Amino acid sequence: MSITPRNLLDLSQSLIGTAVDEATVRCSIGRSYYAAFHLAKDFHRSLSQPGALPDRSVGVHETLYQQLENPTISQTDPKYFVSKKVAAIARDLKRVRAAADYELKQTFSKKVAQQAIDDTLRLKALVESRGGQSVNASTSASTQRTPPQ
Amino acid sequence: MSTQPKTLCSQILSQVNARVKAGGPYLDSTSFEVRRLICEAQKITGDAYQAIERFITLGAIHQICGNEAEMRHNFSYAAKLDRSPRTAAAYCGALINMGYISEAQKEFVKAARPELGWLTCIDSLGFLSMAMTPLNEFYADAQSLKIADLSAKHIEDAKRIQKILQEDDVTDQIVGQMLDDAGEILRARHLMRCAPCPSGYQICEDPYDDDSISIRWLVPVATDTASEMTFEYVDRFVRRFDKMPRCIGFSFLGTLC
Description:
heterodimer; A: mainly alpha; 0% strand; globular; B: mainly alpha; two-stranded antiparallel ribbon; 61% helix
């Protein structure tokens, strides 16, 4: 059985659906971020050619975002700027998720979790509106060129 | 011990600052509240010092109405009469509140030089305008002159932020441009952001990647609307910069559910 980013987002939403403690809020932020990461990864895979690899070794997620922010497709391709936007938005969600997971002294409210969900839903709409899911994975760019971390 | 009475200027500015802190839509300049505030401000008359206070107060009132021309007009008169850091600091704050961050960086430099004596009170304007290079210089000067009682956390944060920005070749001017775009989005929606609490920036430590900075502006709108505003910002961001700054991110956070 497999799941989709939508399933992760549904989980995020259900986690903060009722009165919740802060640990649950932080979990919700983490799930929203991973939904965003997978949406970004799928979008990158849908490009006709992968983005330029980073010039130095960075983490797997950052590698993906650097590829997305440096697309090698034509600037006239509607996906060119979408690719850059996906990188900027997912990277920002990553910052929130890192703080939620590692900064235990900070306070995270339900609003921050809801904001992460709304941002990811909008990211989903963005990649889907530009045919991010429409390209056959076997003929599209692959993130497998990403060096292992 | 008796309490020193507040000047009329302070009383009006307290009311303006409460509005700024809460954020929200610009006030209607024809509303009773604004007309009352303006009427009160115009009662500040007398010597040159009071004229300065009147212009600063009127500038601050016009700021919360989103009336940029009147805000600038009043502060420019105040600046003509007063070269002290007070007017520059007040103008810097108004520019930040209205989202003119690049300009605010310049006013911060005028107001915050440590020898002028205001650095401790207004160093937060340096963070809010992300004028990190002058802020670090001023901190260093103040420490060497031993003339200011500075927050160790602020000094440490300012150093770290500047280091993170420098490592990605991101200048204060670039950050200013980023935040100017965010300010334009706020103004287009006739919105003031909420006063940052506890600060407008966050240094993000990711164990698997480079440290970065996150700037989030709190806006009293639903999270879905804040998301729409963030995407509008990102659209400008990706078109403005060929080489997108990686070490700093910006987004809006809605404070209403």
